[in-house]
Write a structure and sequence with these properties.
By secondary structure, this protein is mainly alpha-helical. 96% of the residues lie in helices and 0% in strands. The chain is built from one helix and no strands. It has one helix spanning 3-110. The model has no long low-confidence stretch (mean pLDDT 76).
Length: 112
């Protein structure tokens, strides 16, 4: 080969390599951006699902807590009921005793 032809072949090879590499670089940079964009979209969907799941969990916790509190209050009421009934009976008996005492006091006072 002559120097002129050899120079043209080398020049053509260099230009071809530059063209291919720039095309590959463009494709690589685009694919990286596309991949990063898809990661953001995926992360956003997962975040939304996580927030939704967290809200459901909080709601369930509140509901179950309210149920448990209601059961505890009902249980406390059932436990206290005999004591309340006993206190009411004692108060009623005390009032009747006081009424009888006052009645006897006035009977003795007025002699009847």
């Amino acid at each position: 080969m002559t120097h002129v032809v050899q120079g043209m072949v080398i020049g053509l090879a260099v230009l071809t390599c530059c063209g291919i590499s720039s095309g590959l670089a463009y494709a690589a940079s685009t694919s990286k951006v596309d991949f990063a964009t898809k990661q953001v979209e995926s992360g956003t969907k997962q975040t939304n699902q996580g927030i939704e799941q967290m809200a459901k969990s909080i709601g369930n916790t509140v509901v179950e807590g309210a149920k448990m509190t209601s059961e505890k209050i009902q249980g406390a009421g059932k436990e206290a009921q005999p004591q309340v009934e006993n206190a009411w009976k004692e108060m009623k008996d005390g009032a009747e005793s006081a009424r009888a005492g006052v009645k006897n006091f006035f009977k003795k006072l007025f002699g009847r």
